[in-house]
Every structure is written in C-alpha cells, then in structure tokens.
Amino acid sequence: MTASNDGPADPLEAELAALPGLSLDELRLRWRRLTRRPAPPSLRREMLARFLAYELQVRAYGGLPREIARLLDRLAGDADPAEHLARRDERRPPSGTQFVREYDGKVHRVAVTDAGFLWNGSLHASLSPIAEAITGTRWNGPRFFGLREKASSRSEPPVQQDQSRKVSQQRRSQDAMP
C-alpha cells in the first residue's frame, strides 16, 4: 500500500483501511450495499470486515480463475466435513489410555485425554515433550512409551496400551538408555 502523509492514495486502499474502524452495524450496511444481501447474522465484526475486504478486492482485481474455482468446488464436494471432523489420528491412542513408564527408578504415569496427554498435572500436545522432560534428552515420545519399535530388535516387548482404562504394563528403566 502506497500512502502519503495524508493517507492512502488509492480509493480502494482507503476503503480497506477504514473497514476495521467501522461498527458492526456500519459493516452490515456496507455489506448490504455491496452484495445486495443481508450480512450473515452470526458473523462477528472482525470477520465481517475481512469478508468485506475480500469482496472489495475481488471486485477491483478479479476473483479466482473459473478453472481453479471449479477445482476447489469439486474438491470441497468430495470431502464430507462431518467425516473429516470425526476422523481421529489413528496413531494417537484413544482417550482413557494410560501409559506407565519407569525411568531412572521413578514411575511416570501419562493419561490420554481428548485435549492431549496429561502428565504431572500438565497437559501436553504430544508425548515427546514428556519423554524429554523425564529423560533430559530429546526423545521420540511414542518410541519412549513403547508405541513404536526401534529399527533393531528388542529383548523385551513394548509397553502395552490398555484400551479399557487400566494401567499398562511397565517397562524397566534399562530400555530407556539412548
């Protein structure tokens, strides 16, 4: 955006710059004038300002090429949003699973929740920061807790996940040596 001391030189730039300062009612009025439709009632002010900015730029500079728009529509039509939202990461154990790992003479318990992994009262997005906090070195969390095997064979089976919310089988600290 090129601006002089007096503000933006381009009328579109000036209009875009003014949008964040408008009230919700002013944005709705601007939307109705621009699209000849009422603004979606559930949109917050910030989002309506962004949609207006997009619509103004599309009208000034053009939108997506038709081929791209059709491709995006086709791709969006192939995807069922409910299926996408309901799908969970197959690598992640289900909520309620507990991991118990003995390391350096201390027993560590990790519970899987819908929000993440709970360890020592703290919620973590993955197992790796927990493994690092326990060992003091960088570890692949799933490997540390026995969800993945090393490339070489092991003398002891990995930690077992118990899907019925019972505590899993413990492994000895000797396996934790990097």
Automatic annotation (TrEMBL):
Composition bias, Low complexity: 159-171
Residue segments, region Disordered: 147-178
Domain of life according to the entry: Bacteria
Entry protein name: DUF2924 domain-containing protein
